[in-house]
Amino acid sequence: MSHPPLTPPTDAPEPSPVPELLASAERAAADGDWIAAGRAWVEAAMQASLDGANQASRTAAPRLRPLADAGSADAAALLAGILLEYYEESALPTAVRYAEAAATAGHPAGQRTYGFMLVNGLGVEKDEDRAAKLFRAAAEGGDAYGMFNLAATLDSDTDGDEELRLLAGAAGLGVTEAGCALGDRLGAVDRDEEALAWYLWAAERGETNAMYAAACWYRDGFGTATDPVQAVRWFFTMYGHGDGNGIHDAIELAGQGMTDEQIREAGRLAGEPGSAEALIDTVAGKRPQDQA
């Protein structure tokens, strides 16, 4: 059975820079809009901002509680997520209460958060069937992570087309992990060129698992011709993002005959010229042409 090509979106929303998010949160807080402030701080925290996480938990959460208690589903959903992500386990019962309230009110983020608690047994008895229903409701409400989580509950053998559609929808709304998952699923059904395109889409947006996959596919010639420069480029990019798991692979590949010029080009493409020079020094004398 043939399928239309599943190509990455060219207009998926890029995350706002952390300084811009923090400034936006401060403006909203000054205006007394704690829901907008909390959302901006959480988004900053999702980009590894410690300030965002601290402000969400210490400043936004106490001010969201009375709004949630007064019946705001927006506040309840946001507060549940903050309590789940940034508080200790003792806060789980409170997080469950607000997540369930938001889900009952039909709030997509609340449905997704409560579903996540149910599927993992966090503060509630594990209930995968109910979780799947909540993820579906959240997905139908346009929640990107609801789509992503629902895809994870499906059987790839029987629901493969829906799984791909959901992952593409989540990616289109900016969930980079969905792009990496799409690469995995498309590769599993031998749609290698499409899989590599999705790995690259996610890699370009900072997903280190996708960087590693793209590097290995360029190295091994899956979905493309073998290209050691692009392979090492993505191993270097991983390292620049704080993940050194590809460095051994880069050393091994470079030692198999890459020239200094190729390694430097990989470093240039990755924005890691220092890593290129270090790799050149590491493999000096190990290349086949240098051995007696």
Mean pLDDT: 94
Radius of gyration: 22 Å
Which class do the helix and strand fractions yield?
A: mainly alpha
Please indicate the percent range of residues in DSSP E strands (runs of 2 or more).
under 5%
Question: What is the helical fraction, as a range of percent?
Answer: 55-70%
The general outline is: globular
Low-confidence regions: none
Q: Report the span from N to C terminus.
A: 53 Å
Order of helices and strands: HHHHHHHHHHHHHHHH
Number of helices: 16
Largest sheet: none
Number of strands: 0
Description:
46% of the residues are buried. The chain is mainly α. The model has no long low-confidence stretch (mean pLDDT 94). The protein has 16 helices and no strands. The protein has a domain at 227-292. Helix 1 runs antiparallel to helix 2 and helix 5 (92-104) packs across helix 6 (108-120).
Précis, in short:
With 292 residues, the protein is mostly helical. The chain has a domain at 227-292.
Topology, please?
Blueprint: H1 18-30, H2 34-46, H3 50-69, H4 73-86, H5 92-104, H6 108-120, H7 128-140, H8 144-153, H9 160-172, H10 176-188, H11 192-203, H12 208-220, H13 228-240, H14 247-254, H15 260-270, H16 273-283
Tags for this entry?
mainly alpha; globular; single chain; 292 residues
